């Protein structure tokens, strides 16, 4: 063998600056392998230049410009406190890499928790990860602030059924940003409440303003410390929420018949106009910036629903028993790989329906729309999803939608649209509901549709209820950094409500503990389990022979197998469940108790006037 057959070690022939530049673009998996090559490589990467290498913006997700500390992690939307006590840039890189790999997996490992809030079905909810609580409204009225870690109700406002001065109406829509809550009251007024005021306990809010309107308001949305309100009567309102009281800064004139869904960026607000698509206005000047009309898209994709697998009666019993009876949020369950079911996107539209009365044959109606940076996503009654990777460029070019827009078609009869039609967009993914299933569709790094033959990130779906007979439309959903959160219909356990600050009188129908259908908050966590792996950032002395310490293989896919878990909480609970579900989930008697409108679906229908206040992105 000649000398030319040997490849020189780059560490011996190249300046450190050149090696560092190369390593800046080297994938994390390759770094882990390099540390196992020799002691010299381990010393170079994991000791001498560790912080420089792992603090690169190509290795960790961080604010533009490269932060030199971990203060930005306090803004992470993580249910599991995944980034708490991060010790080094390598430690952060490890956590982010494991999390990203699990999200991208075709069958991610998940752990689940379900939170029952009081005894009434949850309508809207928001998660405050900084203060560690949920704030929610319900079908029956009232508002609850619930500890995110224990499930204990910290504070609440009563329902208007109690005729209290501070009561909250049934089906109240809720907006929230960093300690400020906005919800609608009877009429066309909005209430603004603030947490953390002087003398207030944790989770306690105090009203700071009532915003009245002299026209029919249809929806509202809070972000960027700006509240945008839309009316069906051709008007829009923009409030500066940093002022006390909040100040109306812009009164917009828009087209009539806005359907109520809206979202905003720092400078623009986008209103849904039903069959006319989405209209965009400048928040400061009120100027019309243009319209996004999804029906002009020519780039088409479709999703076929997964093969239906209805839970058995035994599975339903197990699921319900796992979720109660307790007033406290139980810890995340055992790891499992069957919660999220893979779905495949295919190129082209769905085959046309043979039924000429099918919703896809008519003029489609566009509802919820959501912005995330340059990305805009909209959802329609016919089950179409509009994905626009750069909405600003799409507005300023005749061929904009052809260049930047795509449509995804899903098989839907439109039945869930009026009370559902929810969206969430985050981290190159979008989430929506189709026919009792939630779909999570992954995009590429430029927020465009992935190559359907070779996707880098997986897409999947999950059920919206523990049993099909209990399914009702989702009324809120959110993608977080480490979790999927949605409303979830399942069986609840009657809870005694007492000793809660701001507590209302006991509901008249609240009797002894029993089981009933309800809508809870479901948390599906995709956070990796860091407890069983030794952090490479804590091991600088070992050589490459110990790959667990040096990083070689440390960030390989390491997902635990599902463990055995306790299924039944009590014999009495099991007997009550069997009595409720009967032979193959026959729960008609119990559902009739909730069926206030007599249509047999087990839920009281939302009055049109109630629902129209709750529409937004």
UniProtKB/TrEMBL annotation:
Pfam families linked: F-box-like
Listed Polar residues bias regions: 530-542
Domain F-box: 8-57
Matches recorded under InterPro entries: F-box-like_dom_sf, F-box_dom
Acidic residues: compositionally biased ranges: 583-611
PROSITE patterns, sorted: FBOX
Alphabetized CDD domains for the sequence: F-box_SF (cd09917)
Top-level taxon of origin: Eukaryota
Residue numbers spanned by region Disordered: 499-518, 530-617
Name of the featured protein: F-box domain-containing protein
Organism this protein belongs to: Aspergillus ibericus CBS 121593
């Amino acid at each position: 063998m000649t000398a030319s057959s040997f490849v020189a070690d780059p560490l011996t022939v190249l300046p450190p600056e050149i090696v560092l530049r190369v390593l800046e673009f080297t994938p994390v998996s390759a770094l882990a392998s390099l540390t196992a090559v020799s002691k010299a490589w381990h010393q170079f990467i994991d000791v001498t230049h560790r912080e420089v290498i792992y603090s690169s913006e190509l290795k960790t997700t961080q604010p533009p410009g490269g932060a030199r500390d971990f203060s930005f992690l306090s803004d992470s939307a993580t249910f599991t406190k995944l980034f708490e006590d991060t010790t080094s840039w390598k430690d952060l890189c490890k956590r982010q890499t494991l999390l990203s790999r699990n999200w991208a997996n075709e069958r991610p490992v998940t752990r689940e928790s379900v939170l029952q809030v009081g005894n009434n079905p949850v309508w809207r909810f928001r998660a405050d990860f900084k203060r560690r609580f949920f704030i929610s409204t319900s079908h029956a009225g009232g508002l609850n602030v619930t500890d995110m870690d224990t499930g204990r109700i910290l504070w609440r406002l009563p329902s208007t059924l109690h005729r209290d001065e501070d009561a909250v109406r049934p089906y109240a829509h809720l907006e929230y940003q960093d300690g400020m809550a906005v919800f609608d009251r009877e009429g066309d007024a909005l209430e603004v409440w603030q947490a953390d005021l002087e003398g207030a306990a944790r989770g306690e809010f105090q009203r700071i303003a009532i915003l009245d309107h002299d026209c029919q308001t249809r929806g509202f949305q809070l972000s960027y410390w700006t509240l945008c309100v839309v009316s069906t009567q051709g008007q829009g309102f923009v409030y500066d929420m940093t002022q006390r009281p909040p100040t109306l800064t812009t009164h917009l004139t828009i087209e009539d018949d806005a359907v109520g869904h809206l979202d905003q960026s720092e400078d623009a607000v986008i209103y849904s106009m039903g069959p006319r698509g989405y209209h965009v206005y400048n928040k400061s000047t009120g100027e019309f910036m243009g319209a996004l009309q999804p029906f002009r898209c020519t780039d088409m994709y479709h999703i076929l629903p997964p093969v239906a697998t209805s839970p058995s009666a035994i599975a339903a019993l197990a699921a319900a028993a796992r979720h109660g009876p307790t007033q406290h949020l139980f810890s995340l369950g055992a790891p499992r790989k069957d919660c999220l079911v893979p779905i495949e996107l295919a190129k082209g539209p769905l085959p046309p329906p043979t039924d000429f009365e099918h919703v896809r044959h008519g003029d489609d109606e566009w509802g919820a729309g959501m912005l995330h940076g340059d990305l805009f996503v909209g959802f329609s009654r016919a089950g179409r999803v509009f994905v626009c990777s750069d909405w600003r460029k799409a507005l300023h070019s005749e061929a904009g939608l052809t260049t930047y827009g795509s449509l995804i078609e899903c098989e839907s009869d439109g039945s869930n649209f009026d009370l559902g039609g929810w969206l969430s967009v985050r981290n190159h993914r979008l989430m929506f509901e189709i026919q009792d299933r939630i779909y999570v569709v992954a995009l590429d790094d430029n927020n465009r549709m992935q190559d359907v033959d070779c996707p880098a990130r997986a897409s999947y779906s999950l059920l919206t209820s523990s049993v099909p007979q209990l399914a009702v439309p989702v009324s809120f959903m959110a993608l977080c950094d480490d979790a999927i959160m949605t409303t979830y219909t399942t069986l609840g356990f009657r809870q005694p409500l007492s000793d809660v600050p701001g507590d209302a009188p006991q509901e008249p129908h609240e009797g002894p503990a029993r089981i009933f259908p309800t809508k809870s908050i479901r948390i599906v966590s995709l956070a990796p389990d860091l407890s069983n792996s030794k952090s490479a950032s804590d091991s600088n002395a070992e050589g490459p022979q110990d790959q667990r310490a040096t990083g070689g293989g440390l960030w390989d896919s390491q997902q635990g197998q599902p463990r055995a878990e306790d299924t039944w909480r009590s014999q009495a609970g099991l007997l009550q469940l069997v009595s409720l579900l009967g032979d193959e989930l026959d729960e008609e008697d119990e559902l009739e108790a909730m069926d206030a409108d007599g249509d047999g679906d087990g839920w009281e229908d939302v009055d049109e006037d109630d629902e129209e206040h709750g529409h937004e992105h």
